[in-house]
Amino acid sequence: MRQRIFEDKHGNLCGEYPHDPAVGFVSGKRGLRRRLVPVDEREALPEHKAMELALKRYALTEHEIRDIQSANDAKKRAEEYALKHLTFSVASRRWLDQINNSHSDRTVKIYGQTMRLYLELVGDHRLREFGRSHNVAFSDALAKLPSTRTPEKPISVSTQHMHLRHLANFLRWSYDNELMEKQINIKKPKLPEQEMEVFSLEQLQQLKSFLTDKIDHAEPGRDLINAKNLMRAFMLATNCLLRVGAIAHLPLTNIDLDGALVKIRDVPERNWKNKACKWPNKPINSQLLAFLQSDLNGRGKRERWYLDDGNGRPWLADHSHVSTHMTKACREAGLPGGVKPFHWGMRAAMITWLLNNGVSPQKVQQLADHADIQTTMRYYNTRTAQQRDAVEMLPVI
Predict the structure, then answer these.
(1) Domain end point (choices 52, 84, 116)
(2) Are 119 and 144 in a shared domain?
(3) Given its phi and psi angles, is residue 112 left (phi above 0), alpha (psi -120 to 50 degrees) or beta?
(4) Least crowded by CB within 10 Å, which of 143, 161, 188, 330?
């Protein structure tokens, strides 16, 4: 390699080296520059001695640069080897650790179940070896996997679809983080066409009357608290289209009556993360405002949560139990069974009603807080709407 020693504008003797010793100097690219003999040291030496010192130091620095480059190359080779041989199990743990910072514990737990299932049913292997055969093997194994509730039957197609969807999310993350060289499109079983069964407006009015009557006849104490919290959940679900998780984790401080807003935020205290809410401030309509004004005026001083046990603690430890209580109330009120009260019965019912009555899908999407308008339209009970249109066209006999 050709040595380059030069004098800078301050009189220092400096050396220039290529960035990569194996490649050498690159035309038009300035090399690495190092000061070899400072001007004050140079002035104290004869010129030929100063140059000899510069040449000696140039050689030493050159060796240092080569050693550093060699170490970097070795590190790079080790990283490339590790990446090439990275196993599915190790990569999946990295993924779960990362999403733990941005997703709820429940979501991370479900993703973790999928990863464990894959390793049990398919086995561990190098991540970069993943191909169509692994996709098919996992899909076939899921189709034969016994259900925990009814072991004589396999898990449902929707559950199989969910696990394969989680696998696709993991592989997409792996590709985005350069752990895989190509993007994999996971094939999933076709979901059966199923339209959400929703409550009619009349059935929701029937449920509201039942909940009101329950409050009127409830015994003081836990019975009354249960009845009031069911009505509170009903009012937010039908007037703000809130998901049950957001209702169960709503602090009273996030209800702004002056601004007529319900603010949906993460609740670190209860380790709850909102489900990617794009429109986190939900407007309060006049019906809900009147209810909230009356409800909040009657609250105890210690209460902190919208669904409170009366002593500043959450009404129920697990928000899924709110759905359990509401399902029981729906059954007692005489409503049809098999309808998820919040997800289908109320949320989808209100979406269907708004769309049937001319509210634009974009506005409904924002109120429902769907990232994709197609999700909003899947909640739309088109069968009810189309039959209503058809029956109105029947001739008068």
Answers:
(1) 84
(2) yes
(3) alpha
(4) 143
